[in-house]
Amino acid sequence: MFAPFAMRRRISCPFVSSRLLTVLLLLALTPLSAGADEDPVGPWLQARMREHAAWFSYSGTGEGRPGAMDLWRERPAGAPGLPNFTPPTSLAPLIRAVEAGVVNITTVSPRESGLSGMKRSTGSGFVLTPEGLVVTNSHVVSGANKIAVRLSDGREFSAEVVGRDASTDVALLRLSGSDLGNLPALYLGDSDRLEVGDWVVAIGNPFGLDHSVSHGMISAKERVLGVGQFDDFIQTDALINPGNSGGPLFNMKGEVVGVNTAVISQGQGIGFAVPINLVKDLLPNLRENGKLERGWLGVVINDDRDRGERRAPMVKDVFRDSPADAAGIRSGDKLVAVNGRAIGSYLQLLRKVALLAPGTEARLTLLRGGVTQEVSVRLVARPKQEATEGLVRHAPSDEDLGLTLRDLTPEVASPMGQEAWSGALVAAVVPRSPADEAGIRLGDVVMEVNRKRVKDAAGVRAALAKGSSGASLLLRVKRGDSLQYVAISR
After folding, report:
1. How confident is the model at residue 317 (pLDDT cuts 50, 70, 90)?
2. Separation of first and last alpha carbons in the chain
3. Where is each PDZ domain found (predicted)?
4. What does the longest C-alpha to C-alpha distance in the chain come to?
5. Domains of the chain, start order
6. pLDDT band at 295 (very low <50, low <70, confident <90, very high)
């Protein structure tokens, strides 16, 4: 009565000898006596032999082998790991190659709230050109009377602001002094090619500690934080602390793929950076104009941004005598790329066009009737809202009021202390627009339109579409902890 148990213990061992395996196989295949039908050993042996046969067949293919009772898979000893994946061993060579291009920025500015004396602040940046152009955050140099930039080799230069833009938090500086022309400029990468899980390195001067290094990975892309209508942040778990602002975020090729710009103080290991491709589009504008001069295409987009799908934006209407009209763009065209860079949403189109300076000639790729074609468009300065009235008729929208709305998704609501899907977040307000004149502010949450409850941006637009043209709108907004009604004339 103990034989089956002993046999079971020996056969279950994965290291059973080939000779014993042959004997057991013969036993399993040998016809049993008449009384064997009542003996459970025969079926049991056959089941165990099937498991061992499967184990040997898997180990021979290199695709893995099953665990006990086929509940899981295991790779055989010596089998290769994941394809196209090489785990990093040391980041020291990368850091040595790029750290010379990371700079420490010190500013002196008047104290706020009317206090006497001057305030001294520090930040980070990186060398863009050997001749002395430096990129940093706008808030690092905002209001500064004096800016000093120190390189890792100890050289120090005074700097002036060439241009800056608060909506993207990007600033361009120019160094002055001798010994320019051979500065250690860094290479810029392609942030569109980043994937969640890619390794990244942040270098900066947190709390004034020169050239501190942290590493992590890309946690998410295209994060919208409610800062402005150009929100397009890279989220990373590489540590970013005060003083890191303006410093570079590197990929594993030593290329700058982002400008570190924000951190959620309540969280740990959650930092944000402006994608370097957005910075590339903005830099010519800042160098030529000193600020963001927004280009205008002249189209109305059939906005599908609230459906959560990535799709090429479709032209709903074209303004008469606009750059789009001159280029022959029509209603129904799908805009799939700007200057060779693919776009998959209304927001991407808005960013890529608005960041280009007026006078820039842009190359648009569009899809019309299933056929792809390219057109050249010379952008112009965005006209005032009253100048575009009557040029095109379309349903009222949040943009007619001068608003940019965002859904309060859990990712957006949580850092702001708001309840998800409790309304539509005001992400931007156009100056001198009806919303601006009515007192709507950045960060307000629209909860009702004409006393109808709304839970997202699509709900606001649906309520606006039902309203009568020219009639006033009554919005109920949440501002901080208070609720108030705001009337907007249109």
Report:
1. confident
2. 93
3. 291-370, 391-481
4. 107
5. 3-74 (no CATH), 94-290 (2.40.10.120), 295-385 (2.30.42.10), 395-488 (2.30.42.10)
6. confident
Residue 52 known to be catalytic? no
Q: H or E element: which one contains 295?
A: strand 295-296
pLDDT at res. 38: 56
Instruction: Give the pLDDT confidence score for residue 484 in this predicted structure.
Output: 86
- Contact between 240 and 219 (Cβ < 8 Å): no
pLDDT of residue 394: 41
Examine the pLDDT at 441 and tell me if it is beyond 50: yes
Q: Could you write out the three-class secondary structure of 101-163?
A: HEEEEEEEEECCCCCCCEEEEEEEEEECCCCCEEEECHHHHCCCCEEEEECCCCCEEEEEEEE
The dihedral sign for the CA sequence 231, 237, 238, 244: positive
**CB neighbour class for 421 (10 Å; exposed up to 12, middle 13-18, buried from 19):** middle
Alpha-carbon torsion angle 328, 329, 333, 339, nearest 10: 110
| pLDDT at position 9 over 60 | no
pLDDT at 406: 84
**Residue partners of 385: CB distance under 8 A and separation at least 6:** 402, 430, 432, 433
The tens digit of pLDDT for each residue in 456-471 reads 888 888 787 765 555 5
Selected catalytic residue, list 139, 142, 190, 436? 139
**Average pLDDT of the chain to the nearest whole number:** 78
E strands in 224-289: 233-236, 248-250, 256-263, 271-275
In this predicted model, what pLDDT tens digit does every residue of 208-221 receive, in sequence order? 677 788 888 999 88
Find the angle CA(216)-CA(98)-CA(285) to the nearest 5 degrees. 90
User: Which residue from 403, 222, 225 is spatially nearest to 310, judged by alpha carbons?
Assistant: 222
Rounded to whole angstroms, the Cα distance separating 461 from 466 reads: 9
Which contacts qualify for 42-48: CB closer than 8 Å, 24 or more apart? 44/4, 44/8, 45/7, 45/11, 48/8, 48/11, 48/12, 48/24
Closest of 254, 313, 329 to residue 102, by C-alpha: 254
Q: What region does 17 belong to: left with phi over 0, alpha with psi -120 to 50, or beta? A: beta
CA distances from 461 to 115, 191, 396, 398, 451 (A): 45, 32, 8, 6, 14
Mean pLDDT of 265-292: 84
User: Choosing from 191, 245, 345, 433, which is the catalytic residue?
Assistant: 245
Locate 369 and state its tokens. Answer: 């009737």
At residue 298's C-alpha, the angle toward residues 456 and 399, to 5°, is 25
Beta strands in 323-402 (DSSP E): 334-338, 341-342, 361-368, 371-378, 380-381
Distance CA 234, CA 237 (A): 10
Tell me the pLDDT tens digit for each residue of 372-393.
999 999 999 877 543 444 444 3
Determine which one of 121, 124, 165, 169 is catalytic. Answer: 169
